[in-house]
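Exercise: predict the fold of this chain.
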Amino acid sequence: MRRAELIRYLVLAAQREGNRRLSGELRELGLTPSQAEVLRILGDHEPLTLSGLGALLVCESGTNPSRLVDRLVEAGLVARITALDDRRRVELTLTEAGRERESAVRSVEERLYGAIDSAFAGIDAEPVIELLRRLSAGSPSGVALSERIRANDDLASAGARTEVTP
């Protein structure tokens, strides 16, 4: 098997295993991974417009996340609020129930990240991160992730709550 093929399948296997673990725990919260991503983004960056949210979504990059948001609004986790400065602009925020669920999602993610951190014990993660960045550069998901990293860096600069980014 050539190296590129091995890398392709190792990335695919790792992604599927991570999604399997994540989906299992999120199912107990009544959420899909995509819905959980929306809650986490809003938890870190609310209020956001639909297009602002879409620019930060890796799960649905390049598409309109309106159906995803519609389901979260119907579930009482996200609210649509008309912007005070422009009645044509609708902003998305978490409801109180949404904040509670976002906190639970954060805990699920921390457990997954702990498993990933354990797998990297004694290994320099930087070459892996660089490879994955190169593989995703310029793709819709790669662009969305770059936007999210930039937005988190902006929050960190402003002294707001944020996670460490690679």
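Check your answer against the key: Strands lie at 48-49, 78-82, 90-94.
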